[in-house]
Amino acid sequence: MTTRDLPIAFVPPRYGPGVVGGAEAVVSEMAAGLAARGHRVEVLTTCARDHYTWANEFPAGELLVDGVTVRRFPAVRDTDGRDRHVIGNKILAGDDVDVLDQYRWINGDLRVPALYDHLVDHARDYRLIVFAPYMFWTTFAGASVAPDRTVVMPCLHDEPTAYLDVFRPQFEDSYALWFLSDPERALAERIARVPRRSAVLGAGVHVPAAYDPAGFRARHDLDGPFMLYAGRREHGKGWVSLLDHLETARHVLDAPLRLVTCGVGEAGIASGPADLVVDVGYLTDEERSNAMAAATAYVQPSVMESFSRTIMEAWLAGTLVVANDASAVVRWHCERSGAGLTYRDRFEFTECVRLVRDDPVLAEKIASAGRPYVLEHYDWAKVLDRVEAWLGEHA
After folding, report:
1. Cβ of 58: how many Cβ atoms within 10 Å?
2. Is a pLDDT exceeding 60 seen at residue 67?
3. Which helix (H) or strand (E) holds 84?
4. DSSP label at 256?
5. Measuring CA to CA, which residue among 16, 92, 27 is closest to residue 51?
6. Contact 248/346 with Cβ under 8 angstroms?
7. How far apart are the C-alpha atoms of 301 and 342, rounded to whole Å?
8. What is the predicted pLDDT for the residue at 272?
9. The pTM is what?
10. What one-character-per-residue DSSP string does 17-41 give?
């Protein structure tokens, strides 16, 4: 048996039904896509579904799912995270944090000792071991086991944690890095010495066979134009700033558009623009696609993006994207496609809302460039072609 006959392992912190997260989605779909093309693929992951609690909801052990061997290992979490919280606040504030405290921080939350032991015992049984994203213990610890066959898909953001010393080895000592966009690679090259085999491979987005916008409106009792936000309702994803911007739009415009939101995390809309926000909860992939098609515009307030699959889903549905200009990745997609509007503050956000509300014909015209852009660059078949070409040359 040659090295190329060995399986490729993917190591995300979470995997399976009900898991929400861009990196996790990319890993899941790439693993399934390669398996469908005849590659031997394994997923090594935790028993956790929720990244807030890391509770072990899935059973440990081995399972075959759609041609992919999934091996789950119990998550272990420090029950007293006070020190980690204090150190984490210093990191996010941009303070100097010594290496020992950095190690305390990364080891002070999720750990998966049994997964690490499996890698120590079986790393040579894999053709490649692909870790994603960079900031989790599974990647931090796992990437150190066999750097000569480790690929890190960092899903990198320009954030204080990216510059920590504890993450430098995975950026510099791994066999290669796989990037989702050109700006992500440029950021990595500013931070570290990127391995020469590294490449921008992108991520794929599945194209729905059909959309049911009218059905979505009926099922959720929605009428009239609305904006949509889909994803994690977290401060780091721009959710709080979006609510603040919406409050400004309410005071400037006589009748701003409503915001429909779906995803996970507390919506936190008891005050502020609560009357303008409709939370439809967690949606299946199919129903989220229907929501994209029903929306007048999709809002992406997050700065912390390495790809942003939701804006691709919006463009596939023919929907305009209104995005935070502070995200280099999202700005790059909007400029390359010509299918989005970007805003730099609450006032520009308000003017974007005004345009969407007052000139839906122009909004639709701008959005029309989005679907061809996604199909040209991010159809899964084309992404998997790039992955296989890289494997053929380097692994």
Report:
1. 22
2. yes
3. helix 82-92
4. P
5. 16
6. yes
7. 10
8. 57
9. 0.90
10. TT---HHHHHHHHHHHHHHHTT--E
